[in-house]
Amino acid sequence: VEAVHLIADGKAPRIPQPKEGATYEGIQKKENAEISWDQPAAALHNWIRGHDKVPGAWTTINGQAVTFYGSSLLDASVPAGQELTIKGASRPGLVTKNGLVIFGNDGKMVLVRNLQFEDGKMIPASKYFSSDETTALELTEEEKKMAEDIR
User: Fold this and answer.
1) Positive or negative CA dihedral for 6, 9, 13, 18?
2) What is the pLDDT of residues 27-38, one digit of tens each?
3) 33-131 belongs to which homologous superfamily?
């Protein structure tokens, strides 16, 4: 009751919170989210999952920072896929039809579903080696007329 009265009277003491020991914002920095590859698969998965979406766990592939999103542990035989060299990883990843398979130092696997590049472009990891195929939109005569009416 006394504290409420002090606040109501505008006489409550104000003690500024010290900056020392405040670590939350420091954790959220992108440079602190780089993946350390000398870990078991479960630790890699937890690291990627723990940084999903902000700031995003990242690594270097072909000289470019690539951020990993949507990981899950993969408990199966090694799937067929195209090898992808990842800087610092003990063995190359595999781009498969389901995503990018990465390996922990224990030989177990993690499946990563999405990748984001430095320019902000995000793709399904399974499409890493796919060329940027763009198809022209072909409109029917009716759709062309509708587009003209809208214009």
Assistant:
1) positive
2) 567 888 899 999
3) Formyl transferase, C-terminal domain (3.10.25.10)
